[in-house]
Amino acid sequence: MSELISVAVDAMGGDNAPLEIVKGAVEAVNEEPKVKCLLVGQSDVITSELAKYQFDKSRIEIVEASEVITNDEAPVMAIRRKKDSSIVVGMNLVKDGQAGAFVSAGSTGAVLVGGQLIAGRIKGVERTPLAPLIPTLGGPALLIDCGANVDARPNHLVQFAKMGSIYMENVVGISNPRVAIVNIGTEEEKGNALVKETYPLLKACPDINFVGSIESRRIPYGDADVIVCEAFTGNVILKLYEGVAGALILTVKDALKSNPATMLGGALIKSSLKKSLSGFTTEGNGGAPMLGLNGLVIKTHGSSKSIEIKNSILQSVVFSEKKISEKIARNIQTD
Amino acid sequence: MSELISVAVDAMGGDNAPLEIVKGAVEAVNEEPKVKCLLVGQSDVITSELAKYQFDKSRIEIVEASEVITNDEAPVMAIRRKKDSSIVVGMNLVKDGQAGAFVSAGSTGAVLVGGQLIAGRIKGVERTPLAPLIPTLGGPALLIDCGANVDARPNHLVQFAKMGSIYMENVVGISNPRVAIVNIGTEEEKGNALVKETYPLLKACPDINFVGSIESRRIPYGDADVIVCEAFTGNVILKLYEGVAGALILTVKDALKSNPATMLGGALIKSSLKKSLSGFTTEGNGGAPMLGLNGLVIKTHGSSKSIEIKNSILQSVVFSEKKISEKIARNIQTD
Q1: Of the residues A79, A246, A324, B137, which has the maximum number of CB atoms within 10 A of its CB?
Q2: Tens digit of each residue's pLDDT (9 = 90 or more) over A33-81
Q3: Nearest Cα to B226, choosing from B288, B180, B184?
Q4: What is the pLDDT of residues B196-214, one digit of tens each?
Q5: What is this structure's pTM?
């Protein structure tokens, strides 16, 4: 039997921890025979959750961590002080090579800081972007960077483009992914200072399939697979996506409630509509990878259910099997 | 009889020129007895369009402009070379005081450049932002700046906040409008360098009702009336709004076509849904004002129909009556 791939999972992070987290780990183990999950957190709580399920006991292990970092805590301080928190313990498992990846639905700030300070960057990588998959009419696209390090420089964006391409090609399975830079027009001379400096560097980069600028209007239509931007812009895009979609769905729901005819109409379309709109959520894709680390860190939404946790764990298996960190290291070091 | 308010209108600009433009001007004159429209463009074309309608002939005048600036032309060059274009002639009417405002659905770049170079800035105004009204569940909000001048400085953003507040209070009729700055979190210490520098300046500004940071997720829910940002960010927000809404509406339409039951359901909800979604378009609001100029310049969407032209003309009347340019001048000069 070939060696198992170990994935550490933050059992204490997120709104639905530990219930949905433990459930997601069990589901992953039951679906993927190559994975072993290390559930990090308070062992008594995890043990009683695990008691609910049937699974191969040799492939789920509990790693004790007595503390929990909450969303209200200042990330740097929390990572420094809470040495026995599930995030710090989980990151250390990655650092020490005991796990190939760490999945957490906990505090985004703490996960980003922990990734940088503990898991550590690949040599040559200057910044470690957080890169969620966003839904488009053409399938998921990688929005890189949406993390905490704003005011990036052009060479950072070039590294994002390379790492994002490797991820989309190998983990998501998009061959020769189209890379575009977010801009306010499609002409080459358009943009702010950062985009104008970055554009020619991307154009000259031999390792990527650069297709030019993308206006935000075209992002939801799937015109690019790897959408490169600085983290402030990425954060605005990610959250506005969620906001506009949420507000529109509320509007549609209200319209359906306006009279008996629309209520009947609503009943007739409900399941079809739900199915269509579900293509416009990211749950099925798992969480957002933080790229450029020694090992993978995946941040899932704070409201994650078991399906996102399971998918993030399966994503981690592919990441390890395809040796993405090594590919990134080779690609960055040939600069 | 009190004096008429003259509004210059670019009869040649936009996808539906001159037909919808001339129609919009006629509708405005028929609705608002205080307005006189100066239709700028090729007089033979305009004359034959006007022949279709009934209206008070003393309140529509044709101002000849033989040239047309297209969307493909480089804006600065076009404004400099095409002295007899409808945009240049219209801007000169504002500069010379013959019109209080100029409305155009033509090239955004040329309108922005023409506004700055010809109409001229109010003394003390450093940048003249383009500020479209965007739809939210709480009514329209002003997104300022979405123009062409990226990489703004903190004091520019403070001026945007002041001008935007005056516009929303006096033209749109929102008393004590809530001003927020676009940010990647709501805590005061969050943001990129620009936001971190601007935040305390806005907080200290006595003339505005500053409510702090707004994450883009909350924009569609109407948490602020004046949404301040640098033009690159504003452009990304404006176009993504359009993109996500468009892609989602396509998705809903597809869902309704999936089988006979959903088609029946779709027929039952159609008019109610259309009405609800129309609240999520900006047509009824007219175009985007370019603020800080001596006079008003309004840029409407390239695909504008008569209703947007009419509403932009009516908006211009309010702007002139309430002496917004004078209010901005006073407010900026007390800095």
Answers
A1: A79
A2: 999 999 999 999 999 999 999 999 999 999 999 999 998 899 999 999 9
A3: B180
A4: 999 999 999 998 999 999 9
A5: 0.92
Tokens 């972007």 found at: A129
What is the sign, positive or negative, of the torsion defined by CA atoms of B125, B126, B130, B136? negative
Residue of A nearest to B250 (CA): A137
Six token digits for residue B290: 């370019």
Tell me which residue of B279, B280, B286 sits closest to B301, measured CA to CA.
Answer: B286
Chain A residues touching B280 at Cβ < 8 A: 247-248, 251
Strands of the sheet with B101-104, listed across from one edge = B60-64, B35-41, B5-10, B101-104, B296-299, B288-290
Residues of B in contact with A248 (CB under 8 A): 220, 244-245, 248-249, 277, 280
Distance from CA of A178 to the nearest CA of B (A): 19
Q: Widest CA span of chain A, in angstroms? A: 65
User: Which of A240, A269, A275 faces B240 most closely, judged by CB atoms?
Assistant: A240
- For B230, nearest residue in chain A (alpha carbons): A192
Enumerate residues 6+ apart whose C-beta is below 8 A from B85.
B12, B65, B67, B68, B69, B78, B79
pLDDT in tens, B101-133: 999 999 999 999 999 999 989 999 999 999 999
Residue A117 CA to residue A147 CA, distance in Å, equals: 15
Task: Pick the residue from chain A with its C-alpha nearest to B278.
Answer: A251
In the predicted model, what is the mean pLDDT of chain B? 92
Question: Looking at residue A60, what DSSP letter applies?
Answer: E
Q: Which ipTM value was assigned to this complex?
A: 0.90
Q: Do A184 and B247 touch (CB under 8 A)?
A: no
Q: Which residues of A touch B239 (CB under 8 A)?
A: 184, 215-217
In chain A, the residue whose alpha carbon lies closest to the alpha carbon of B243 is A217
Percent of chain A with pLDDT over 90: 75
- Backbone φ and ψ of B304, nearest 5°: -55, 140
**Angle, CA of B165, B169 and B174, to the nearest 5°:** 115
Q: List chain A residues with CB under 8 Å of B152.
A: none
pLDDT digits (tens, 9 = 90+) for B73-87: 999 999 999 999 999
Distance CA B41, CA A125 (A): 57
Q: Select from B193, B217, B232 the Cβ nearest to the Cβ of A184.
A: B232
Cross-chain residue pair A239–B233, CB shorter than 8 Å: no
> Residue A84 CB: number of other CB atoms within 10 A?
11
Residues of chain B with Cβ-Cβ distance to A250 below 8 Å are: 137
pLDDT of residue A284: 58
Count Cα neighbours of B314 within 13 Å in the Cβ-side half-sphere. Answer: 19
Q: At CA A319, angle to CA A313 and CA A322, rounded to 5?
A: 140
Does residue B247 contact residue A261 with C-beta atoms inside 8 Å?
A: no
Among B187, B188, B236, the strongest candidate for a mutation testing the A interface, having the largest count of A CBs within 10 A, is: B236
